[in-house]
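Working notes for the structural subgroup meeting. M.R. asked for a predicted model of this chain before we commit to crystallization trials. I am recording the input and output together here so anyone reviewing the notebook later can reproduce the run.

Input as submitted:
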Amino acid sequence: MATNNPNAWLGLLKWSLAYSDGTKPSDENIKQMSKEDIAFLESVMKDGIIDEGERMKVILKDLTDSLETMLGGGGSSSSSTVTVESEQQEEKCKELDEDDMLEIMQELRDIVEQIDYARAFMAMGGLPFLLGCASSTAPKAIKKSALSILSTMCQNNPPVQLSLLEHGHMPPLIQLFFDYTPENNSADASSGDDSMREKVVQALSASIRGHSVAEHVFCQNEHGRLMLQLGLRMQQPENKPSAQLRKRSLFLLRAILTSDDANDERHKQYQSMISYICTHEINEEWEDDAEIREMSLSLLSQLLAPKEPPHKVASDTILSRKSQIASFGVKRIDCIRKMEEGSEEREYASLELEEWERIMIALAETK
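Returned structure, recorded in token form:
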């Protein structure tokens, strides 16, 4: 069978070493291979080549069996009589513990990094399994791993993105985000889990970005907008999300607002978030992460850039905050320029300085 597996040479090497010690010319004592030699060669070649398609089937079955047992749904029968056949099937079920499941889920993620294998896993029913796993009562590590595999599968892969839409993946994933959002004014940090919310936003982002229909469906979802507001700290400001969650939320927002399908109607739906970026996300006193400030400034510059047709809602929203943005900019630019030349601090702030200079020029050129 043809394969691109880079380790196929190992099978040939194994066979070669069994028949030659490397001390004699290879053309000595050449003789026709026996049936036993041919069988042995075929065996080691098979050992040196992994059929990724078959491996995905095995992984999916093992995970399904193990998760069913873990969640308490495996092995029960409504009949009091259990046939010998069903007992034999039960014996074949592989029950993996959490660590073993995480190990083969990582292997699966490595496989589906290739677009064709991602589509093959989709064809064998992998998406419903991953969505169900993420929304189940499985351990958090298992749920996060399922979300990571989803992200990998649908990244720049339109057929997988479309299939997720057909499975209605957005509502359950958005609900999963809310399930791990801390309660308002809650002093109990355990009431939320930002690492889980990060994975949810990552999976949704990968499934939406670059897909026109998926972007449109998400933008029409009121709960999706609320999810981004929570991720950006617009809601529940006393419960500050992790820097990684804020970055992932801003990354998704930027993709939605600057995509080829973005227009005034979409910008109006996200107008409050555009305004929030102008008043908070570029303000060092509010946002302490330099990378997030840089991303925010870059987004504002992109939204101000001339377009045909013009994006009037976004530009008008930004210009209505022109004085406030300029005030932040003058203060921050002065602070950065006073840093010692060649210092690590100045080097670290150089990208932010470039973005500030860019937005200040854009504001000055816009009437």
